[in-house]
Specification:
The chain has nine helices and no strands. The protein has helices at residues 7-34, 38-46, 50-67, 72-76, 80-101, 110-133, 143-147, 149-165, 175-207. The protein is globular and about 50 Å long. The two termini are 13 Å apart. The model has no long low-confidence stretch (mean pLDDT 95).
């Protein structure tokens, strides 16, 4: 459950995270409609990205405990290991984008606003929220392995989705262009990097046993 002292931060971050997702959703659907792919095609594109799905995860992790703290979802997303796992996932989004994708395109206008919200502002904000508001005494070294199930499932989803519609969200897992061998090597490398981020989060948690808010 979100404490009264950390509630304002959670509300602010929920507004910011939802703003990024909804703005990007509008831009994606608008582009899809203009290119003749329609609303359905826009949603298929939108929900193909790890960035979008992870930002939606952040939105849910913040909103559920705020609006329904006693519900199953509210209780689940109030668990320290779940908050930490969401933080590791969104931090990974930011790091991977900065290292691998920021040179691929040059967003302008609203696209730049959405891009910065999704890749920098929300990840930084949720990391701060985790550091200030989340208990850390229950975190264990095994938790990064459990957190790694999320990107693993995403990789399987992206490959199946790509094979069905012949479109992959990221070039480094585009099995149609680079082949499955290179795709799997890249995928394993990314999973190892995700695990490293998880270990980093766990190491940070050892520096602070109690939330400051």
């Amino acid at each position: 459950m979100i404490s009264p002292r950390s509630r304002p931060l959670a509300v602010l971050l929920a507004i910011v995270s939802w703003s990024g997702v909804l703005l990007q959703g509008y831009l994606t659907l608008h582009s899809a409609i203009e290119s003749g792919k329609g609303v359905a095609g826009g949603f298929i594109i939108f929900l193909g990205y790890f960035t979008i799905l992870t930002n939606l995860l952040v939105c849910t992790a913040l909103t559920a405990p705020l609006v329904a703290p006693t519900s199953a979802w509210g209780k689940y997303f109030s668990r320290p290991e779940v908050i930490a796992g969401v933080a590791a996932s969104i931090v990974f989004v930011s790091i991977a984008y900065h290292l691998l994708l920021r040179h691929v395109w040059n967003p302008q206008g609203l696209h730049l606003v959405a891009n910065d919200l999704l890749h920098y502002i929300t990840p930084s904000g949720y990391l701060i929220y985790w550091w200030l508001a989340a208990p850390k005494t229950s975190l264990r070294w095994v938790h990064p392995l459990w957190w790694g199930l999320y990107p693993t499932v995403y990789l399987v989803y992206a490959l199946i989705r790509g094979a069905l519609i012949n479109s992959y969200p990221y070039g480094f897992i585009d099995a149609g262009a680079i082949g499955y061998q290179r795709t799997m090597i890249n995928g394993i490398g990314l999973l190892v990097a995700f695990f490293a981020v998880g270990l980093m989060m766990l190491a940070l948690s050892r520096l602070q046993k109690k939330p400051t808010l």
